[in-house]
Amino acid sequence: MIGLYTAAEVRAAEEPLLVGLPEGALMQRAAAGLATVATRLLGQVYGRRVALLVGTGNNGGDALFAGARLAGRGARVTAVLLDPDRAHPAGLGALRRAGGRTLPSDRAEAVAVVERADLVLDGMLGIGGRGGLRGTAVGLAEAAAGGAAVTVAVDVPSGIDADTGAVDGVAFAAMHTVTFGAVKPGLVVGDGRGHAGQVHLVDIGLHLGPVDAFQLTDADVAVAVDPPSAGDDKYSQGVVGIVAGSATYPGAGVLCTGAALRTRPGLVRYAGTAADGVRAAWPEAIVTEGRPRDAGRVQAWVVGPGMGTDDAARSVLAEVLATDLPVIVDADALTLLAQEPARLRERDAPTVLTPHDREFARFGVEPGPDRIGAARRLAADLGAVVLLKGDATVVAGPDGTAFVNATGTPWLATAGTGDVLSGMTGALLATGLPATRAAAVAAHLHGRTGQLAAEGGPLLAGDLVRRLPEAINRVRGGRARRLEHSAP
Questions:
Q1: Position 56 in a domain
Q2: What pLDDT does 68 receive?
Q3: Containing structural domain, residue 413
Q4: If you write DSSP's letter for every residue of 310-325 in order, what string do you get?
Q5: What pLDDT score does 487 carry?
Q6: One domain for residues 165 and 253
Q7: How far apart are CA 202 and CA 33, in angstroms?
């Protein structure tokens, strides 16, 4: 897992090094890593034009020292200084000794330097920056975005909140971000995710403490989707019950059931009101015409997608929530539950809520720019796991543990993909995974499947169900093994 560390946590980890190392050593480590990534992105350094956007803090010093290293290899480096009198003195000296030049940001030539550059390093604001860019920094950021250069942010893109990803005004739009010591939450969630581009982590020797926010990797997810062993049977791999779909929205039941079947080949029991459609699409499922209590033994329930919000649906939701089993609550069931949140607070068994922003707001508060914080607060209030859907889905448990999903594609913003996610989450929860982990694994795998399905362009929710086995195989490394076996 990749830990996500706030600015305060990173500063606390830096303190012992700043005391114990020679002055400037930590900055030199950061600058060396930054220059290495910049060199790789440029390909050829000699003769290339590099523009440094330099603020007044250590972030600007990192950019200046990295620029000096590039200038030493023959790059034509110009540092555009937001405040020439307050730029990092040692960094300025190193750049000038290496043959780089400096230019005040209020000179007319400054924008042209940025527009003509092959590489732009953004060192205007660091992890302590608050609010959007101001003054000449706005024009420089816009020039970088409009030019042909490779744009690289130093530690975090200037203008984003390192802890939340919030952008208040104008922020630097980076194709790449080289971050030091630890990945900051603002690089992977909210608007910050879109401004950060590809994130490159440079190890500068920090001794980081415990953390409660993470990103899963494929290797983490692979453990949760291990293949069955010789001693497994259909009951030992998790039995999930599905209450989804209706006469109006039969597809929700079909998609949710199919996703559960494809995620974990155990047993799926369907107990919704779209029985005919589910039976026709998935003869592998056990379909019950009655209520959930008539479906037989299950180990987790999924309730809500497409089932409606009438009195009959309300009664079914109450029946499912009254069990002592884990429950996934989605779509219409979220609308009903938001009207009676006490039902949720009274539960002892795990509950996973899977709202998008509008469904989240029905519980009384908008997600706002701090999506991790919002999900944590709602999870703590309701005593449930909250999976807040979005470009970077956030999963938060009532204990404050959070996961930010690193997979996915904008093509997933289409009808029915949420039904697929619910079926996947339910199947994983039925295997005995802790609720927060099951939701995070499902989000990761859902995103990977979306990326696979979108390789040929626009996708449908049904494409996710069809491609799930292949996505699971790839996450588990099956593709690499096939290549190895086919090698001469």
A1: yes
A2: 98
A3: 218-479
A4: SHHHHHHHHHHHTSSS
A5: 31
A6: no
A7: 6
CATH number where 101 lies: 3.40.50.10260
Q: How many domains are contained in the chain?
A: 2
What pLDDT sits at residue 387? 98
196 & 63 share domain: yes
Check which CATH number belongs to the domain holding 391 and give it: 3.40.1190.20
Is 14 within a domain?
A: no
Kindly tell me the number of DSSP H helices and DSSP E strands found in the chain.
Answer: 19, 18
The reply to whether 200 and 222 lie within a common domain is no
Q: List Cβ neighbours of 399 (8 Å cut-off, separation of 6 or more).
A: 436
Question: Environment class of residue 227 by beta-carbon count within 10 Å: exposed (0-12), middle (13-18) or buried (19+)?
Answer: exposed
Q: Are residues 198 and 225 in the same domain?
A: no
Phi, psi of 362 (to 5 degrees): -65, -15
Burial state string for 204-213 with b = 16 or more CB within 10 A and e = fewer than 16: bebeeeebeb
Q: Is the alpha carbon torsion for 64, 65, 68, 70 positive or negative?
A: negative
Cα(467)–Cα(441) distance, integer angstroms: 17
Concatenating the DSSP letter of every residue in 438-463 gives HHHHHHHHHHHHHHHHGGGSS--HHH
Place of tokens 């005391």: 19
C-alpha span between 198 and 236 (Å, rounded) = 40
Pairing mode, if any, of strands 213-215 and 2-3? antiparallel
Helix 435-453 and helix 417-430: axis angle, to 10°? 140
In this structure, is residue 12 part of a structural domain?
no
Spans of the chain below 70 pLDDT: 478-488
Q: What is the pLDDT of residue 253?
A: 97
Would the pTM count as exceeding 0.85? yes
Among candidate residues 165, 194, 210, the one where a domain is terminated: 210
**Separation in Å, CA 98 to CA 29, 68, 73, 90:** 18, 6, 9, 12
**What local confidence, expressed as pLDDT, does residue 140 receive?**
98
pLDDT digits (tens, 9 = 90+) for 353-383: 999 999 999 999 999 999 999 999 999 999 9
Domain boundary among 193, 210, 227: 210
Report d(CA 202, CA 291) in Å as an integer.
Answer: 55
Per the listing, tokens 């994983």 go with 428
377 shares a domain with 246: yes
Q: Which amino acid is at 157?
A: P
Q: Does residue 488 lie within any of the structural domains?
A: no
DSSP for 97-159 reads HTT-EEEETTSTHHHHHHHH-SEEEEES--TT--S---THHHHHHHHHHHSSSEEEEESS-TT
| DSSP label of 58 | H
Residue 131 is predicted with a pLDDT of 84
Specify the pLDDT at position 89.
97
Closest CA to 309 of 267, 340, 268, 284: 340
Rounded Cα distance, 242 and 406, in Å:
27
